[in-house]
DNA sequence: CGCCGAGTTGATCAGGCTCAACAAATGTGG
DNA sequence: CCACATTTGTTGAGCCTGATCAACTCGGCG
């Protein structure tokens, strides 16, 4: 176990100042599946995850869910608090977690007074934008099987560590979660994953997906519908 | 014809200071379909569109295109220049246009020295993030017909004015453009739009889509696949 | 006037959704 | 600790939306 992850929001700051900000933050301990904030409510604070994991989820009028993002330690969420906006998603802890909160007013003053922090926010938003652009690309062009492979691999190498038996996603990801990430039905996802498990390409350990054969799964991404090759 | 659109990047600034920034910008006149910058090249400047329209496009390895965003007067693009990143998209003018550029170094200094500008950037990125989240939602849940209706209506009321015969998108949008926005084939899009034209719900004027019967098109969004109703 | 890009239209096919059960895992109370 | 309930996941059959394959039309331009 390493120490807490570096906090992106405070990257590159004078350590002393960063320390004082940390002291001003409200610390909150969360069990698994606790609601941190809900879509539509006024954004009261900027949040940073210290440990554990969380997901940002939207629910459509007709009941379908979309996971916008998984949050891991060090990452910001709830940035609309900087603009007196509303939270655009539900935030829910995935495992037992710890988060920090800075109330809107405070963090607005801090950001206004310290440009490097503003740039850290901008950096985070740019990265998230790239990520969403990538998802739009994939949803537009790739079949379910490839989207599944991509999403799984992405999570392994962004969040996961290389264990003995392959790469493991360090928090629980249910079939339904995958469905909410790639936009398909539970049935299709289940069938596909089941096939991969049968071929020992993936496994599960305590609700956590484990990619046993990274290369095999990666190869799925290179076998597109034969036509599109232009 | 009204004057130039308000520039989001400079919103809320002391007019005098805004003026001096405008003077420091490089002005560039563009014909239709000129390349402003290309995906992958180092971001050398933050851009603002003054008049006309532009599109931000990505091309996937297998040749498919995705339109990430249409840019209209007043909007920023190329913000990765703030972080010494690379442009993540191609930017191309859609019509004859005028844009302003601030070189990376200059704009970085300005942003660092003037927090309100940083907040304007953050605001813009948040809005774009919401937009992309919305597209992921739609791609995940809606059939082509609804995505088509939604995209068209969105463009009419974000970019368009109410003309005599309905809402018109103020720049050319080809079938292929629509395809690149919603992720389907030219064939499917063509068929659907053709049907709407036959019913006089939409029209075209000089390559620009015109929604003749906004209500009729809006109604398409409310008729989901009967099941999903939860 | 023939070419070329953009768009239309028809016929066919299949990926993935719907409908329908069932099975396994997890939780709950007695 | 077991019986039962509930949630989560698996599997089969059939259908439909939208992709693919294939031609053809139209408008603009050299």
Give a concise summary.
The first copy, chain A, is α+β, with helices and mostly antiparallel strands and 230 residues long. Chain A has helices spanning 15-24, 104-113, 115-141, 144-159, 175-182, 186-198, 214-220; strands spanning 26-30, 35-37, 45-51, 54-59, 65-71, 76-77, 90-93, 97-103, 161-163, 166-168, 202-205, 208-211.
Oligomer state equals homodimer
The Cα radius of gyration of chain A reads 19 Å
Helix content of chain A: 25-40%
Count the beta strands of chain A. 12
Q: How would you explain this protein's 3D organization?
A:
Two copies of one chain form a homodimer. With 230 residues, chain A is an alpha+beta fold. Helix content of chain A is 40%, strand content 24%. Chain A contains seven helices and twelve strands. In chain A, a hairpin with a 5-residue loop joins strand 4 and strand 5. In chain A, helix 2 crosses helix 3 and helix 4 crosses helix 7. Chain A is globular and about 55 Å long. Chains A and B meet through helix 2 and helix 3 of A and helix 2 and helix 3 of B. The structure holds a DNA duplex (30 and 30 nucleotides).
Annotation keywords:
homodimer, DNA-binding, disordered C terminus, 230 residues
Per-chain topology:
The structure is a homodimer of 230-residue chains.
Chain A: H1 15-24, E1 26-30, E2 35-37, E3 45-51, E4 54-59, E5 65-71, E6 76-77, E7 90-93, E8 97-103, H2 104-113, H3 115-141, H4 144-159, E9 161-163, E10 166-168, H5 175-182, H6 186-198, E11 202-205, E12 208-211, H7 214-220
Antiparallel strand pairs in A: 1-8, 2-7, 3-6, 3-8, 4-5, 4-7, 9-10, 10-12, 11-12
Helix pairs in contact in A: 2-3, 4-7
Chain A binds a DNA duplex (30 and 30 nucleotides) through residues 143-145, 174-176, 184-188, 190-191, 194, 225, 227.
């Amino acid at each position: 176990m390493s120490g807490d992850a570096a906090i992106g929001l405070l990257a590159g700051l004078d350590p002393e100042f960063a320390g004082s900000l940390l002291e001003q933050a409200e610390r909150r301990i969360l069990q698994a599946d606790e609601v941190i904030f809900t879509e539509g409510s006024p954004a009261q604070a900027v949040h940073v995850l210290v440990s554990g994991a969380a997901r940002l989820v939207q629910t459509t009028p007709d009941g379908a869910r979309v996971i916008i993002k998984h949050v891991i330690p060090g990452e910001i969420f709830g940035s609309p608090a900087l603009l007196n906006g509303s939270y655009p998603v539900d935030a829910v802890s995935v495992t037992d977690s710890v988060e920090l909160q800075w109330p809107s007013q405070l963090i607005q003053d801090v950001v206004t007074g310290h440009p490097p922090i503003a740039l850290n926010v901008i950096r985070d938003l740019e990265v998230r934008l790239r990520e969403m652009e990538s998802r739009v690309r994939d949803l537009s062009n790739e079949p379910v099987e490839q989207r599944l492979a991509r999403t799984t691999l992405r999570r392994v190498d962004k969040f996961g560590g290389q264990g003995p038996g392959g790469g493991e996603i360090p928090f629980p990801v249910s079939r339904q979660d995958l469905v909410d990430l790639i936009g398909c039905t539970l049935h299709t996802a289940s069938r596909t994953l089941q096939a991969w498990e049968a071929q020992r390409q993936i496994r599960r350990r305590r609700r956590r997906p484990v990619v046993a054969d990274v290369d095999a799964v990666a190869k799925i991404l290179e076998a597109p519908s034969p036509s599109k090759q232009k």
